[in-house]
UniProtKB/TrEMBL annotation, chain A:
This is 5-taurinomethyluridine-[tRNA] synthase subunit GTPB3, mitochondrial. Its cofactor is K(+). One of its GO terms (cellular component) is mitochondrion. GTPase component of the GTPBP3-MTO1 complex that catalyzes the 5-taurinomethyluridine (taum(5)U) modification at the 34th wobble position (U34) of mitochondrial tRNAs (mt-tRNAs), which plays a role in mt-tRNA decoding and mitochondrial translation. Taum(5)U formation on mammalian mt-tRNA requires the presence of both GTPBP3-mediated GTPase activity and MTO1 catalytic activity.
From TrEMBL, chain B:
Pfam families: GIDA, GIDA_C_1st, SAM_GIDA_C. Residues 661-682 are annotated as: Disordered. GO terms for cellular component: cytosol; mitochondrion. It comes from the Eukaryota. The lineage of its organism: Eukaryota, Metazoa, Chordata, Craniata, Vertebrata. This is 5-taurinomethyluridine-[tRNA] synthase subunit MTO1, mitochondrial. Keywords: FAD, Flavoprotein, tRNA processing. Its cofactor is FAD. The gene is mto1. InterPro entries: FAD/NAD-bd_sf, GIDA_C_N, MnmG, MnmG-rel, MnmG-rel_CS, MnmG_C, MnmG_C_subdom, MnmG_C_subdom_sf. One of its GO terms (molecular function) is flavin adenine dinucleotide binding. One of its GO terms (biological process) is mitochondrial tRNA wobble uridine modification.
Amino acid sequence: MMLPLPSVYRGIFRTAIRKLKSSRNPSLHRLLSDCDGVQTGLADADTIFALSSGHGRCGVAVVRVSGPASATALRRMVGFTHRLPPPRTALLRSITDPCSKEVLDRGLVLWFPAPHSFTGEDSVEFHIHGGPAVTAAVLHALGSVPGTRPAGAGEFTRRAFQAGKLDLTEVEGLGDLIHAETEAQRRQALRQMSGDLGRLYQDWSHRLKRCLAHVEAFIDFSEDELIEDGVLDRVDSWVCGLQAEMEEHLKDERRGERLRSGVQVVIAGATNAGKSSLLNTLCNRPAAIVSPIAGTTRDVVETALDIGGFPVLLSDTAGLRDSSDLVEQEGVRRARERVQQADLTLLVVDSTRLPSDVQQVAGFLSDHLKTVLKQPETDKCLLVLNKTDLLPEAQTEKLKQELRRVSGLPAACPISCQTSEGLKDFLTVLRSSVQTLCGDPLSGAPTLTQSRHRAHLQQCVAALGQYQRYRDFDLALAAEGVRLALTSLGRITGRVGAEEILDIIFREFCIGK
Amino acid sequence: MLTKKLLPAQSFQLLVSRNVGHLSRQRYDVIVVGGGHAGTEAAAAAARVGVDTLLVTQKIHTVGALSCNPSLGGIGKGHLVREVDALDGLCGRAGDWAGIHFSILNRRKGPAVWGPRAQLDRQLYRDFIQSELLSTPRLTVLEGSVEELLLTDPNPDEPGPHRVSGIRLANSGQSISAASVVLTTGTFLSGSLFMGQTTSPGGRIGDAPSSAGLSHTLRERLGLKVGRLRTGTPPRILKDSVDLSLAELHPPDSCPTPFSFMNTQTRCKPEEQLPCYLTRTTPGVEKIVRESLHLNCHIQQDTKGPRYCPSIESKVLRFSGRSHQVWLEPEGLTSDLLYPQGLSMTMPPEVQLRLIREIPPLHRAEIHTPGYGVQYDFVCPTQLSPSLQVKNTQGLFLAGQINGTTGYEEAAAQGLWAGVNAARRSLSMPQVALSRTESYIGVLIDDLISRGVTEPYRMFTSRAEFRTLLRPDNADLRLTLKGFELGCVSPSRYQEAVRVKNSLRDAMAALRAVSLSSTHWRERLPDIGLSENKMSKLTAMEILQHTDTTFEMLASVFPESFSPYMEFAQRLRIEAVYKYLCDISRRDIKRIQKEENMSLPQDVDYFSLSSLSMEVREILDRYRPSTLGAATRLEGMTPAAIQVLFQYVSIAEKQKEIMQRQQQNQSEDKEDLCARNVSLPQ
C-alpha cells in the first residue's frame, strides 16, 4: 500500500483548491472546473496530467503525466527529438511550450516507462518552480499536446489500481483514515471502518430486501395459494418504519460530515473590529494582514485549524460597511455569503464602540446581530468583544457582569487580541461550540459522515415514497420503488453498482496523488 | 387474423417420411431431436432463418402435445409467450387457436406484471403446431429414435475440443449429417417413471424411453456434467364423475386477450369459453398422504423437484395442517376430462383414488389416468454459451428441460433461440445472444448459463431487473425488428411491427404537442380530479399519466389529434405511465452494458488469482462467466472479488496494448541506434 502525501498537506491542499477556484485566474479556474466534469471510462486511452503537489505558491511543483502520449509530451516539451532519456533518472532541462517554443521554466524531468511507474502506464514528471504562473503555463502547454487532458479527481490512483499497483479492497473508511487530519476525524474513520455505520446500513439493507421479497412474492405468486392475505399491509408498515428511521438519521444536522470535512467558522463584523487580528491570534501566525486602516481585508482569508481535536476551517472576511470601492463591495458581498453558509459565526465587536451605559449593551448587540445575520440563531454564533485592553478595567468588569445577566444573546467573550486577555476562556467556549456541532464520534448512534451517503439515503427515502405512491394502483411500479431504494442503499453498503462506487471512491482521492 | 387452416390428419402420411428408407437425403443443415415445445420452436425457427431442417421425433402423433397442464402463459411465463411470438415463434398463435379460457392474471397489479394466460384444448393445440410445422418450407419431420450423436474432429477456428456432425438413428443405424444438432429431449434423457412402488424407464407415460446411447454420448464421450431432477403430473379425472356444484366457479375474462401480436381476436368466441373451478384439500387428504408415504418411491428420493409447482405430497409435508387450492381445469372443448391442478401425485393408483375422493367435489370422482412422477437427467446449463451451444462441442445445441428448466414457455423460448443459432451456425454466421436488459428470454438464458440450476428453473417477473421495460405489451418493439435482422421473423410481421412502432412514436409526439393550462384541462376533463393547485401548463402526456385518465378521454376532447391512434389506446396509456421509470432504467442499462462488454477470457487460470478467496476462485473456475457482467450475477460473488476481476481484465487489456507499443518502440529504438550509434538506455 503506497501512502499518499502526509496528511498535513491535505488540509492546506483543500483550502488552496477552494481558494484557487475562487481566484480570478481564468486559465487555472477553467482547468480546475474541467477536472470536475471528467468522467473516467473503463479503458483509458487518454493521457492525463495534473499538478500533483499542493496548489498555490511553493518552492517546487510536481506536474505528473500518465498515459500513452507521455513520451510525446516529453519529446515535444523538453526537446528529446529522437531518444527518450534514461528511465527514472532526473535530468535538468528547459521546458518549452510546444506551440510557441517559448521557454517556460528550467526544471527536472523524469521518465517512467510502463510498467514501472505509479500508474503502471508510461509516465513523466516535471519538477518545476512552484509559482502559479509557471505551473499554469506548463499545464496549459501539456493540454496542447495531442491526446492529453487534465486528470479527473483521483484518476492517477484509479489507474494505479487498475494496473494492479494498488490493492484497495477496503474502502472509504481507509481513505478517510489517510485523510484524517485530526484526532476526532481519525476516531470516526476508525469507527466507520470497524463497521458501526456499515452495520446500520446493512440492517436497513436486509430489511429492505425483505420488503422487496414480500412485494415480489405478492406479484409473482399471489394468484396461486402460496401467499396469504395481508402481505402488503405488513410491507406497508415496514416501509413506513424504515422511512422514519432513515429520516431521523438524516436529521442529524450534518454533524458527521462536519467532522469529516471541517466546521466552517466565519469571522465577521464591522470594519476595524479586529477580525484579522483574531484570525492571526487563533492560528498563531500572521496569516492575514492587519492594519489600523478600515477595510484592509477585502477578500476571504481561510486557514485550517485544529480546535480541541476537531477540524475547523476559519475564514476571515471583509468588514461589513457600505463602500463605494467596487473591490471592497465585492469583498462585503462575499463576507455576507460566507456568513450565510457558516456553521458558526464569530461576530467581532470593537468593545470601545459599545454604549458606555452597560444596560444598553444587550440591545445594541442584539440590533448589531440582526444587521449581520439575517436570522440570528444563538447557537450558531459567538460574540467576540475585542479590544478590552482599551477599556478601563472597571468598565470591562461591569460589561462582564451585564453579559452574564442578560439572556437571549449568544455567548459573548470579551477578549483582547493585543494582550491575549480572555483568550483562554474564549477558546473554551469555541471548543465546546465546535464539539456540539460535530457531535461525539464515539457515543450514540453512528452519524452520517459523507455527503455521498446523505444523497443516497435521500434517494432511498424518496424511492420508498414511490412505493407508497404507486402501491394501490400499480404494484410493479411500487415494487420498482423498493428496488430503487435497495439500489440506492446498496451504493453505500457496496453491494450494488461496483463500478459507480469505484468512481466515487477514487474521486475522493484528490487529483494527482 | 387467424388465417392458418388446419390440415386434415391423414395428410401427415403424405408429407412426412415415416420410414427412414424413404428419407430422400442424408444431409441437413440443422437436425432437431425432439418434438415438444422446445423442439418444435427450434425446428420452425431454423427453417424460418432459411436452412434445411429435419425434426426427428419418436412419434409424429405426439408432436406439439401438452404433456402436463392444459394451459399456457401466466405470470412471467406469459411474458415469454409474448416474446416468442414477437420473434415469430409458434406458441402464441397456437395458444390463440387452442385457447378455451383466457384471462390476464395480476390485472390489478400493473401492466408490467400482467400475466396473459389461457386454458387450452389439447387437441387443437397439437393440431395447430403440427399443421404449422408441415406447412413450413424447408422443414421435414421424421419419425424415429436417435441412437447417438456423430462426432468428428473440431474446427480449429472455433473453440471447443469436440464437434458434432450428425445423428445415427436407432433402428436402421442410418446416419444423417448436419452442421448443427439441437437436442430437446425433455424428460426423456435417462428418464424413469414412478407410480407407487413401481418404476419404469421413460419420459412420458405411453411413450418408449429414449435410447441409452444418447445419454452415453453426452456423459462419456463429451464429458458433460449431468444432474438429476424430478417432476410430476396429476391424475386426469372424468368430468361426469365430478360434482362441480360443490366447487367455486371462475369464469374467464369476458373479452379474451390474444397472445399473439398478429391476432386481434382468438379462435374461441368470448361466450364459448369454458370456466375453471376452484376447490380445496381437506384434512383427509393430508392423512392419506402421510399413511401412504411408505408406498411412494418417488417422494422418498432426494432428487430436486420444483419448489414452485410442488406435488401434493411435498405441499403436505412442508406446510402441514393447511388447506391447499385445487383448480379443476377443462382439458378441451369436447374432452370429457378435467385436470386437477395442484394435485400432482405419485402414490399407487388405488391410493390416488382414495385421496381425491377426500375433496368434496371429487367425492365420487373416477380417475381416467393416474398421476405419476418422472426423474430425468439434465445437462448442467453452465456448460452452454449464450447461444445455447454446448461450449465444448461445436454445433451441439441444447434447449428445454434438458437444460434444467420446467414449463412449456421456458422450453419454447430456449428452443426458438437455439434454433436461430443452430441455423446461423450452419450458414457460418456469428452466434447471437439476447441480453437480459432487452428480454425475458435473455434473462432466462443468462440465468441458466451463468448460475446453473439446483431445482427446475421457472420464470418469474422478479428475475428481470428491468421489469418496467420488459413488459408483455412491448415485446414486439423490443424483439421483432431484431428478429427480422436475424432472419427468424417473416416480412409481414416485420412490416406490422414497423407500422406499430411508427404509430406509437407519432402518437407519443402528438401527446407531447398538446399542452393546456390546468384550468383548461379541468374544464375539458372534469372527471379526472386534477388538483386545484396545479397552475402550470400540462401536456396531454402528463394528463395521461394521471390515475383516472384514459386515452379514450383525450381522444374525445382532441379527436383530430388522437383519434388516429385509437387502436393503441391501452399501449399508449402504459407507455405514458411507465415513461419516467423506463428512462431511469435505460440509464442503468447503459452502465450494465459497459460491464457486459468487458469479456473474461475463457482460459483464465482463476486459481492463480491469489487475491481472491478460495471459495470465489472455485465458483469462477466452475462457471467461467463470459463477461464481467455475468460474473457479478454469480451466487457467492463479492464486490471485492468483482473489483479484482475488473482489475484483472483491465490489466489484460493494458498488457496487450503495452506489448504492442513496446514492439513499436523497439523498432523505433533500433532505428535510433543505427542512426546515432549510441547505447540504448537501460
